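Possible race condition, two jobs.
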Amino acid sequence: MNQGFISTATEQDISMLDRLVNSAYRGDSSRKGWTTEADLIDGVRTSEESLQAMFQNANALILKYEEAGNLLGCVYLETKGENLYLGMLTVSPGAQTNGIGKKLLSAAEQIAIDRTCRAIIMTVITQRYELIAWYERRGYRSTGETHPFPDDPRLGILKQPLTFMVMEKILQKTQA
């Protein structure tokens, strides 16, 4: 079995990231994995333009997971004050359940520790129960805060009213 590796994505990866993220979140291709937004939202999850904007944010980076020359996963990370925001955690539908998501999450947590962040925060659509349970098994908890899903066709066409819940994982401070 090939050994994958995690590295920082660059602007040269935008087209591949766009294809990966959209295949994993929406449409029929996303149904090959264990979690999808296809029953909740139509349209694309991201675009090359929105990914380009992510690369322009000096407080952000995208990690990518590659194996045998194939892009199989990614995650967006942005320092926001004392927290690290985690978004767009993506694993190719055909490669889900192989531990790639856990590896990307672990790498994100290490970055948060290295940056002396208080916590990792994220938003998850409240109707994505299996995904919420996956994050909870990894130590993330609901903060009780919610936000409405934006009514913006660039983010997708809602099939029903949706809400984001804010989840966080408080990072353990190591003793010196």
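Job #2 (started ~2 s after job #1):
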Amino acid sequence: MWQFFADYPWFTLFIVIAAGSLFGMVRFGPVKLGAAGVLFVGLLVGALDPDVGKAVPAGLPVLGLALTLSPVGI
């Protein structure tokens, strides 16, 4: 099953975003993760199979960095 995620990195990306968005809506007492849920789900998927991280398309980390740092500049 994990090889499927390594073979289709764009599918994996959107699954992680969807699952992370749902995970971010869950309340843990007074705390709600929000968009950080995507980060935690991405870390979980990357930790479960190291081959998934190697299959990430070349421009995706740069895009993620730009989307993370752009609110800081605003």
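The two ends are 41 Å apart (CA to CA).
Logs attached separately.
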